[in-house]
Design brief:
Order of helices and strands: HHHHHHHH
CATH class of the largest domain: Mainly Alpha
CATH architecture of the largest domain: Orthogonal Bundle
CATH superfamily of the largest domain: Nitrile hydratase, beta subunit
CATH topology of the largest domain: Cyclin A, domain 1
Strand content: under 5%
Structural class: mainly alpha
Radius of gyration: 26 Å
Number of domains: 2
Length: 141
């Protein structure tokens, strides 16, 4: 009996053959998606290759709510509520419609709110009550 004909050698040869073809066996060919694979793999902030117009830059001071939002995000990180990676991931996970319809700081405000609700640091009822309270305060001014 030769070394290649033992059951162990045959199993090793089968495993080696399977490993060599692992990409073909386990992962679908991107071409099989008829051009939709790229769309499935993109996130909201991935604009590479997209046609875009000129970016209009304007110098302006940040509004108070924008500064407060970014400070709140930093405080949440400092307190261990989230880290930089989670913060950015939550912004991307807003989806195309919300991502593109919100201003820069608005994306982080909504993401911070969702993080605090998801982690049960605040309930939706508490959040809604606080929003109503702030709205009334501004209406009185």
């Amino acid at each position: 009996m030769t070394a290649n004909s033992t059951p162990e050698a045959q199993a090793r040869a089968a495993n080696a053959s399977a490993f060599e073809n692992a990409d073909d066996r386990e992962f679908p060919d991107p071409h099989a998606f008829n051009g939709t694979f790229k769309e499935f793999m993109r996130t909201a902030h991935d604009l590479g290759g997209e046609a875009g117009g000129p970016i209009q830059l304007q110098e302006r001071e940040q509004m108070a709510w924008e500064t407060n939002t970014l400070v709140t995000c930093e405080c949440l990180a400092w307190r261990g509520i989230w880290n930089h990676t989670e913060k950015l991931r939550r912004v991307v996970d807003l989806g195309d419609k919300q991502y593109f319809s919100l201003p820069y700081a608005g994306r982080f405000l909504l993401s911070a709110t969702r993080a605090m609700v998801d982690k049960r640091l605040v309930t939706l009822a508490e959040l809604t009550n606080k929003i109503d309270e702030v709205k009334k305060r501004y209406e009185q001014k």
